[in-house]
TrEMBL record:
Family matches, as InterPro entries: CMP_dCMP_dom (IPR002125), Cytidine_deaminase-like (IPR016193)
Organism name: Furculomyces boomerangus
Pfam family, one: Inv-AAD
Coiled coil ranges: none
GO molecular-function terms, A-Z: catalytic activity
Protein name: CMP/dCMP-type deaminase domain-containing protein
Highest taxon of the lineage: Eukaryota
Domain CMP/dCMP-type deaminase stretches: 1-115
GO BP, one annotated term: nucleobase-containing compound metabolic process
Amino acid sequence: MQIAIQQGKNCPSVDGAYNVGAVITVNGQFATFGYSRQVPGNTHAEENALNALLAKHPKKEYLENVVLYTTMEPCSTRTSGKKSCTDIILECGFISKIFYCVDEPPLFVDCVGKEILVGAGIPVIQIPQLINDCKKLNSHLFN
Ligand SMILES: [Zn+2]
Protein backbone atom coordinates (compact mmCIF):
# COMPACT_ATOMS: atom_id res chain seq x y z
CA MET A 1 0.00 0.00 0.00
CA GLN A 2 2.95 2.32 0.61
CA ILE A 3 3.93 1.94 -3.05
CA ALA A 4 0.34 2.70 -4.08
CA ILE A 5 0.45 5.91 -2.01
CA GLN A 6 3.74 6.89 -3.65
CA GLN A 7 2.18 6.30 -7.07
CA GLY A 8 -0.81 8.41 -6.09
CA LYS A 9 1.56 11.36 -5.65
CA ASN A 10 2.33 11.19 -9.40
CA CYS A 11 -1.27 12.01 -10.37
CA PRO A 12 -1.71 15.30 -12.20
CA SER A 13 -4.38 16.96 -9.98
CA VAL A 14 -7.60 18.14 -11.59
CA ASP A 15 -10.65 19.73 -9.96
CA GLY A 16 -13.15 17.08 -10.99
CA ALA A 17 -11.37 13.87 -10.02
CA TYR A 18 -9.58 12.02 -7.24
CA ASN A 19 -5.90 11.19 -7.08
CA VAL A 20 -5.53 7.48 -6.54
CA GLY A 21 -2.60 5.09 -6.62
CA ALA A 22 -2.78 1.34 -7.19
CA VAL A 23 -0.48 -1.67 -7.13
CA ILE A 24 -1.06 -5.24 -8.30
CA THR A 25 0.81 -8.22 -6.89
CA VAL A 26 0.92 -11.71 -8.38
CA ASN A 27 1.74 -14.54 -6.00
CA GLY A 28 2.91 -12.00 -3.44
CA GLN A 29 5.35 -10.31 -5.81
CA PHE A 30 5.03 -6.73 -7.06
CA ALA A 31 3.73 -6.82 -10.65
CA THR A 32 2.45 -3.42 -11.82
CA PHE A 33 1.28 -0.05 -10.60
CA GLY A 34 -1.04 2.66 -11.81
CA TYR A 35 -2.21 6.10 -10.89
CA SER A 36 -5.01 8.43 -11.94
CA ARG A 37 -4.53 9.96 -15.41
CA GLN A 38 -1.20 8.10 -15.88
CA VAL A 39 -2.48 7.28 -19.36
CA PRO A 40 -3.97 10.30 -21.18
CA GLY A 41 -7.72 10.67 -20.85
CA ASN A 42 -9.60 10.42 -17.60
CA THR A 43 -8.01 7.08 -16.70
CA HIS A 44 -8.16 5.55 -13.23
CA ALA A 45 -5.37 4.02 -11.16
CA GLU A 46 -6.85 0.53 -10.95
CA GLU A 47 -7.64 0.54 -14.66
CA ASN A 48 -4.07 1.56 -15.54
CA ALA A 49 -2.52 -1.04 -13.21
CA LEU A 50 -4.73 -3.77 -14.70
CA ASN A 51 -3.99 -2.77 -18.29
CA ALA A 52 -0.26 -2.79 -17.49
CA LEU A 53 -0.63 -6.28 -16.03
CA LEU A 54 -2.49 -7.56 -19.11
CA ALA A 55 0.20 -6.04 -21.34
CA LYS A 56 2.84 -7.92 -19.33
CA HIS A 57 0.84 -11.15 -19.07
CA PRO A 58 -1.34 -11.54 -22.17
CA LYS A 59 -2.20 -15.10 -21.10
CA LYS A 60 -4.33 -14.08 -18.18
CA GLU A 61 -5.44 -17.68 -17.54
CA TYR A 62 -2.00 -18.22 -15.96
CA LEU A 63 -2.41 -15.39 -13.48
CA GLU A 64 -2.89 -16.67 -9.96
CA ASN A 65 -3.24 -15.07 -6.56
CA VAL A 66 -3.61 -11.57 -8.02
CA VAL A 67 -4.15 -8.90 -5.36
CA LEU A 68 -5.06 -5.27 -5.98
CA TYR A 69 -4.01 -2.52 -3.58
CA THR A 70 -5.69 0.83 -4.13
CA THR A 71 -5.67 3.98 -2.04
CA MET A 72 -9.42 4.44 -2.66
CA GLU A 73 -12.35 2.07 -2.99
CA PRO A 74 -12.79 1.04 -6.67
CA CYS A 75 -15.39 3.25 -8.34
CA SER A 76 -18.79 1.92 -9.37
CA THR A 77 -19.88 4.92 -11.47
CA ARG A 78 -17.80 7.32 -13.53
CA THR A 79 -19.03 10.80 -14.35
CA SER A 80 -17.20 10.42 -17.70
CA GLY A 81 -19.53 7.53 -18.56
CA LYS A 82 -16.58 5.15 -18.97
CA LYS A 83 -16.65 1.62 -17.58
CA SER A 84 -16.20 1.62 -13.81
CA CYS A 85 -13.16 0.03 -12.16
CA THR A 86 -15.57 -2.31 -10.37
CA ASP A 87 -16.84 -3.57 -13.75
CA ILE A 88 -13.30 -3.80 -15.14
CA ILE A 89 -12.20 -5.85 -12.09
CA LEU A 90 -15.17 -8.21 -12.41
CA GLU A 91 -14.69 -8.64 -16.17
CA CYS A 92 -10.99 -9.52 -15.92
CA GLY A 93 -11.99 -12.25 -13.50
CA PHE A 94 -8.60 -12.92 -11.91
CA ILE A 95 -8.43 -10.48 -8.99
CA SER A 96 -8.64 -12.62 -5.87
CA LYS A 97 -8.53 -9.93 -3.18
CA ILE A 98 -8.59 -6.15 -2.85
CA PHE A 99 -7.04 -3.96 -0.16
CA TYR A 100 -7.99 -0.28 0.00
CA CYS A 101 -7.83 2.62 2.44
CA VAL A 102 -10.37 5.37 1.79
CA ASP A 103 -14.06 4.84 1.08
CA GLU A 104 -14.97 6.92 -1.98
CA PRO A 105 -16.61 10.06 -0.54
CA PRO A 106 -20.03 11.04 -1.95
CA LEU A 107 -18.51 14.12 -3.60
CA PHE A 108 -19.21 13.26 -7.26
CA VAL A 109 -21.25 10.04 -7.19
CA ASP A 110 -22.51 7.54 -4.62
CA CYS A 111 -19.99 4.71 -4.79
CA VAL A 112 -21.07 1.14 -4.14
CA GLY A 113 -17.92 -0.50 -5.51
CA LYS A 114 -17.12 -2.35 -2.30
CA GLU A 115 -20.67 -3.73 -1.97
CA ILE A 116 -20.72 -4.96 -5.59
CA LEU A 117 -17.28 -6.60 -5.37
CA VAL A 118 -18.01 -8.30 -2.05
CA GLY A 119 -21.35 -9.43 -3.48
CA ALA A 120 -19.44 -11.00 -6.38
CA GLY A 121 -17.30 -12.96 -3.92
CA ILE A 122 -14.11 -10.86 -3.91
CA PRO A 123 -12.88 -10.00 -0.40
CA VAL A 124 -12.46 -6.22 -0.07
CA ILE A 125 -10.41 -5.31 2.99
CA GLN A 126 -9.88 -1.82 4.36
CA ILE A 127 -6.48 -0.85 5.82
CA PRO A 128 -7.50 1.87 8.30
CA GLN A 129 -3.94 2.66 9.45
CA LEU A 130 -3.10 4.44 6.18
CA ILE A 131 -6.36 6.32 5.59
CA ASN A 132 -4.83 9.70 6.40
CA ASP A 133 -1.92 9.22 3.99
CA CYS A 134 -4.36 8.23 1.24
CA LYS A 135 -6.66 11.17 2.00
CA LYS A 136 -3.71 13.58 1.70
CA LEU A 137 -3.45 12.64 -1.98
CA ASN A 138 -6.75 14.48 -2.40
CA SER A 139 -6.02 17.63 -0.44
CA HIS A 140 -7.11 19.54 -3.60
CA LEU A 141 -10.66 18.20 -2.99
CA PHE A 142 -11.09 17.68 0.75
CA ASN A 143 -9.16 17.63 4.03
ZN1 LIG B 1 -12.16 3.89 -11.02
